[in-house]
Amino acid sequence: MATSYATVQTAPIDGQKPGTSGLRKKTAVFRNPGYLENFVQSVFDGTGGAEGKTYVIGGDGRFFNAEAVDIIIRMAAANGAARLIVGQNGLLSTPAVSNLIRKYGTDGGIILSASHNPGGETGDFGVKFNAPNGGPAPEAITDQIYDRTQRITEYSIAEQVACPVGQPGRFTVGETLVDVIDPVADYEALMQELFDFDAIRALFAGGFRMCFDAMHAVTGPYAKRILEDTLGAPKGTVINAIPSPDFGGGHPDPNPVWASQLVGIMNGPDAPDFGAASDGDGDRNMIMGRGTFVTPSDSLALLTAHAHLAPAYAGKLAGVARSMPTSQAVDLVAERLAIPCYETPTGWKFFGNLLDAGMATLCGEESAGTGSDHIREKDGLWAVLLWLNILARDGRNIVQLQQDHWRSFGRNYYARHDYEEIPTEIANALMDSLRAGLAGFAGTEVGSLRVAAADEFSYDDPVDHSLTEGQGVCISFDGGARVVLRLSGTGTQGATLRVYLERYVGKDGDHGMVVHDALEPVLRAADSLARISERTGRDKADVIT
Ligand code: G16
To answer: For the domain that residue 442 is a member of, what is the CATH number?
Structure first.
């Protein structure tokens, strides 16, 4: 029987503006009638229509993932898509989607995830459109999508038909071919091209032990297959490996606060040599050695310094890029390697042009994202495999590598303080008054520090020369300390103020301070200049990472 299609009348819904990384809202909001449908139709309409196109579709398995995949398949079919590539059970990690888009030359992909935000019925959900280069849609495209959400009058959807995504294979919805694929296979093949799997296999065969915490999220099946089945890590190396709709009731954010189980294991009496975790959709990573946490900023610096040990990067680093709030540790490595280091706004999408133009090879962010030109997303398991490749080829352990790095380059003490769910007006007023005072900050003494410069970051993209303004306030102090303040673009409730603290201690300085103590003067200066406690009524941050 022929598939029938419906054209459903609808009206614009407020607030469908994509943020730092796609549209993120409470799951309940996405489940409101027409909410997902309006946004998906706007994605198609805002990108020239779906007629004859091919898309990759998958998500991190959170609550509402399965229903959303079903709706998007039926909408893509009703909009005339030629072919859809869907992960088995609707599962695909964000890096896997990026790889599939590039490998099969599709017209883009739709990723269902709110990344590291909690899931479940009362948690968060999200939809992100990735462009044909495999990367998050740049602002020019998300603006067009948003524009459509404000003018939408109808959406198209196929009738309820069976979409058997539980097994690899092919089915059709009307004229649209739907290929259900093993989510891991293509991704694993790419990793094998990049890294020295034999060296990593030998490392594990020699008794090297690691713990990978998949945090009940999408990376579980990827990590189990690659680390345990292919590379020979002992069974049980990957913990919390089965994706669950509410991430086991946890917060799938790989940082020392939320990955506390891993932290306990790595600080325990029989700690393995290496610890790592990944987030909801598999693009973030956290790295630990025995009793040691490697900050994402330091991880980027160390990976850059040693990337030549991996086959894909030996002699091939064209440049590096980091988001502005990320510590300047990698800048020092780039300087020594005599390669350029680019500073971009927060948001992986800003690395896309640099990667496409071959100007940057490695990129990273303080928010636990690291990646390279192999795809156009950050990639959690990739970072773990690059670390394993380096450990296998270098011979030193993580603690030694980190300490030797600091002795060679100096240490950038670093922490991020998040003040969550601040009423939006208060957060905006804080940032506005900070901006208004910026011009007068230079030369001000705050405690033991003196302001060297203060400005608001704007980015002139060196490839397409698009200008992105208002990307965070940066106050630097004499001697190399700095504080950056900005509002998060990924929260779903109120506003989150992020305060990024950094202090540089040179190669002969004290690298063994407690991070909080090292950063105390910078925190005090930030509070005094931005009047954080006075304006928010909070005497400390909610989450410190
Ligand atoms: C997203 C972006 C990252 C960004 C992070 C935090 O990550 O892709 O580039 O650093 O959000 O953004 P914000 O500080 O605005 O909350 P993910 O892993 O959530 O997609």
So the answer is: 3.30.310.50
